[in-house]
Amino acid sequence: xxxxxxxxxxLATILTFQRELKGTESEVKNLIRHxxxxxxxxxxxxxxxxxxxxxxxxxxxKYWRKEVFEHYKAGRKKARDASDLDWKLIFDTLSEMRxxxxxxxxxxxxxxxxxxxxxxxxxxxxxVQTNELIQEGLMEExxxxxxxxxxxxxxxxxxxxxxxxxxxxxSPMQKKYIKASKQEIMDFTIEHIVKGDAGDGVPNxxxxxxxxxTGDRQKPVSAKRLAEFYEKGIDACRNDEERRNWQRNATxxxxxxxxxxxxxxxxxxxxxxxxxxxxxxIMNYLIEHRCRLLLDELEDF
Length: 301
Prior knowledge:
Elements: E1 2-5, H1 6-14, H2 25-51, E2 54-57, H3 64-68, H4 75-81, H5 87-104, E3 108-110, H6 117-130, E4 133-136, E5 139-142, E6 145-148, H7 155-159, E7 167-171, E8 176-177, H8 182-195, H9 211-214, H10 223-232, H11 240-253, H12 260-271, H13 279-288
Parallel strand pairs: 1-2, 1-6, 2-3, 6-7
Antiparallel strand pairs: 4-5, 7-8
């Protein structure tokens, strides 16, 4: 199975065309469609034979993490407002395309309200490793899973109890596989909890919840303190506030904290999803949306 982190993979490609993204609305939408479909097609051609079916994993309209932590990803809108790109047009087009892919192309497209693409990838990776086994001679073995995303959080899945060494990750941004030893993954997870994730608006465990919203500086985590956390984990917390913040961050960054209700919805969406489309519908779509350069590679979809 090939699990594509839809928004991240699409944006990694789209943002290489910064100048073209400042054209007319029609030009921008055609560019987004063309490069996104071209990227998905290239991954199908490159990895399909070894890993099998493609599943497009997308963000829902709401995030359960925001229910847990109100400032989750609060700073992203501010950063985008400061950009000269038309982010509304970009995301509206990607949303339209998500439904187009679901309707026209032969891929499962999974989106669940309250779930992010990260959640879908984590839940489906575990599910196919433990439930969708493949016949290898006389034995049934877990199938290979390829995660297409630059998000380092997915290192966790290489170490998860269900992992059999069949989970791989390719980073579109770094243009390489993300691999790590057991110790590196354990250290990364602890460091992620301790230092938080500024990109997602999650402070380090020494700082207040609203530090990114108010514009205050975080309290720095020294190398000495980080080493204590590597050694002792949560037991290195020195007071109730640090322990509380550890729990806050662990809930937000560790995939084993995804609520059961969200997991169940993801599995239900996956099991009830069927790929649509055929070569004729794909051809008509490409012609309609002026993606004629992709017509010569129609078979690769």
